[in-house]
Fold this sequence. Notes:
- 3% of the residues lie in helices and 42% in strands.
- By secondary structure, the protein is mainly β.
- The chain has a four-stranded antiparallel β-sheet with strand order 1-2-3-4, with no helix packed on it. Strands 5-6-7-8 form a four-stranded antiparallel β-sheet, with no helix packed on it. Strands 9-10-11-12 form a four-stranded antiparallel β-sheet, with no helix packed on it.
- The radius of gyration is 20 Å and the shape is globular.
Amino acid sequence: MMTTKILRSTSLVAAGALLLSACGGEVPPTSFPGLTVEGGEAYLSSNLHVYKFDPRSGSLAWMFPAATTSDEGPRGPFAGPPLRFGDLVIVGETVDPGGRPHHTLYALSVLDGAERWRFSGGQREYVDGVSSDGTLIFAPNGDHTLYALDPAQIENGEPRVAWKFTAKNKLWSRPLVANGKVYQASLDRNLYALDAATGRLLWTFSAGASIAARPAILDGVLFFGSFDQHVYAVNADTGAQVWRSERLSGWVWCDPLIADGSVLVGDVKGGFYALDARDGRVQWRSQVGGAIRAQPVVVGDSIYVVASDTYLYRLDHRPTPDANGYVSPARVLENGLVRRLFSTPVYVGDALLVPLFDGDVKLIAVNLETRQKKFEFPSRPAGQ
């Protein structure tokens, strides 16, 4: 069991290694790929590139940068789900394999991937992408600061900083933007509620350890997990605690999903839980073979979960637990997807698009009806 001192560590690489070392290898925490599908188009940040492709066929539209080096030197790695903002795609750099943080946020044309502007004001890594209210772009950085950028005002090729808020430790998750407020989690244990227009601090909620996942909201209540192994429900207007779950088996670094009155969430020990959104009671639980960081996906009567052991799992959406409240998961592909899975999949048509943590293949589309691979992205040359 990790000590509270370790939980509070500000060492970026050390924290990631500690978090995942028990789950199959040391993984830098800021290199997680991110996938966004919007308007029939898919955008993927993965390692040294950002890609646009057809989510139904895997056909590549463009790649940024076109080469791994430029006159400025190498760019990337890139991490987190790209944000579609009008005719732009917003994506940030993170930490390279040597541990050196890159810290540029790029705005790319959705048409051809050409750079339109950049923001270089952040001093460290972007881990989980950015959010927006349709006017401002909210960019959380590893330098402890949330930057609110105004893309309508570009000066010297960079957007104006409308406001910024500085926490006491790193910001490793996208904020939730809802009802004129920005809810930002921090490794300093706190969830902050800020006025979206001005950045004014409205309230602060303190958990028992670092918070590195994006909250979910339902009926004025925020739901999120912490490295203290609990899930919390907090009033979105006041920051008052509504409930705290029982202690789960591991740290919670998974964006919760609200479905049919249940909070679906996983932990880094492979525990998966359905909690009653009203009181936090565990309705049922399951166990997979690796760390769960990605948000679960509900498709029809099924819940799909990916884990660091390379497997895609299926559970019944409305299961019948055994006498101990346990539900058995099923592997969708018996041989797995070869690479570790830490990023949230997206369902498109008949397939679940699953980003891979590392390797030449960046994403695999799995047909959920046939339980077979539909395509790999990028596609391999014939004969390979």
